[in-house]
Write a structure and sequence with these properties.
Layout lengths: L20 H17 L15 H12 L9 H12 L5 H19 L5 H23 L7 H13 L1 H14 L5
């Protein structure tokens, strides 16, 4: 005798409409593009500590919902981020694609991952992107190391918040968990 499947009675809404497939596939792209557009907001600050929200959203989608973005998606999303943020053209394309490759290599070694491992993987990718982006964009004599370390720390600490946001969006778009 088989048991009926367990249903979460708190969030169970059997008549709620799921998003159409086209919109459900476009939602991860739109959130990464929206994260890249955060750099266009008129924020006045004495230190440039604004985290790269586009990169953060991209890493979160890749680590939480593996098949939400195709492996080649990092290149066009990185190009958009380069165009919006003013970084040298191709730097985010290269670094974001490199992050996808690194995550893929780690996933081949680790069969199962925990949230702490995702956080560590994201922290390494964030530090790599910001540090190499600094080498590409600034001359070597520039003294930005303390500010860069602060920006890396702020971005890494925001990773759990973006995980919550992406999990909520993924649940709303009707994708299986």
């Amino acid at each position: 005798m088989s048991r009926p499947p367990l249903v979460n009675t708190i969030d169970y809404r059997p008549f709620e409409q799921a998003l159409p497939p086209g919109r459900a596939r476009a939602l991860p792209w739109a959130t990464v593009l929206g994260g890249s557009l955060v750099t266009c907001l008129p924020i006045v600050a004495s230190l440039p500590l604004l985290p790269p929200v586009g990169l953060l959203m991209l890493l979160t989608w890749r680590l939480l919902a593996r098949f939400a973005l195709r492996p080649w998606a990092a290149a066009p999303l990185g190009l958009f981020d380069d165009l919006v943020s003013g970084q040298p053209l191709g730097s985010a394309m290269l670094l974001w694609s490199l992050c996808f490759i690194i995550i893929e290599l780690i996933e081949q070694r680790l069969v199962f991952r925990d949230f702490w491992q995702d956080w560590l993987i994201a922290a390494g990718c964030i530090a790599l992107c910001l540090e190499v982006g600094r080498w590409i964009a600034l001359p070597f004599g520039a003294r930005v190391d303390p500010v860069l370390v602060a920006q890396i720390m702020i971005t890494v600490m925001l990773f759990p918040l973006t995980c919550r946001l992406v999990a909520w969006i993924d649940r709303k778009r009707g994708a299986p968990a």
